[in-house]
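COMPLEX REQUEST
Ligand: iron/sulfur cluster
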Amino acid sequence: MNVLEIRELSVDYQSGSGAVHAVSDVSLDLRRGEILGLAGESGSGKSTLANAVARLLRPPAAITSGSVVYHRRDGEPVDVLGLGRGELRAFRWKELAVVFQSAMNALNPVSTIGDQIDDVLRIHAPRMSRKERVERTVELLRRVGIGADRRRGYPHELSGGMRQRAAIAIALALNPEIIIMDEPTTALDVVVQREILHEIRTLREEYGFAVVFITHDLSLLMEISDRIAIMYAGRVVETGSAKALHKAPSHPYTLGLLRSFPRLHGPREELLGIPGTPPDLRSPPPGCAFHPRCRFAMDACSLRRPELVPGAEGQVACLLNDDKGVRQ
Ligand code: SF4
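STATUS: Structure written out below.
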């Protein structure tokens, strides 16, 4: 069952030299309790998409079309883009929370970690007593591997990994159904990154929330995600289970991303990378936006834009689409 349904969502950034089409016609489902990975190079639209869903976009960004429907635990559908100010405040912590890449920027530097969790509980769960809030704060910190004594610490007194854990604890405060994690481990070293990924999976098992996990590192997503959506030039170009994408990617861009990072397991492979740079989204290339960089491009690719259609497993937007996956 889906907890979130995004339909034909488009977001533009208005600039003096024309609109930048950061997200174009994206339709995507998030299933209850799943970890959905969102991958793509910088500028592919993944963070803009997440910010649109969380209603965090600020001018010059604007949603130009589409819908986002959230299905509450009781089954009631909520039109996220139609929520008023007050409804949105409640929605953001109780139903959906966001963890950003740099916890140092997201956390308040002049407030202790404990006070920051307490603030969320005090405002959004007014019936909780002071004692209950303290107990909940200690419990949340414990769940993310931070000792109770640290609740009196300020963000600058914690390591990068601990700050990110604290940000996750704040996101968990009201047991949301969805947590959007935007590059939550990118700034951390590999060991801490692995620990946090493991913790996110464990917490997900325990609390049952769904995660949208955003990163440019596809190999990392393979480890943590149930399903993955690949974005290029503001569009979803492939979706599928992590296993299927790992075994047989159907889109040449997915293959390029996979071959851009060394794999932690399996035989050594030559890193191919992806030639060229992402397109200017004020005037993306005609047809398939990936065609100037695609080693499988055909004449038709610059003339016709491939639609996202069911592939061997999941969906793929490529004129080469068949049930055999991309030639490797
Ligand atoms: Fe490459 Fe053509 Fe497929 Fe685009 S449609 S990814 S250019 S083969």
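REMARKS: The chain is about 30% helix and 25% strand. The pocket of iron/sulfur cluster is lined by residues 251-252, 288, 290-291, 294, 296-298, 301, 306, 318-320 (CB under 6 Å).
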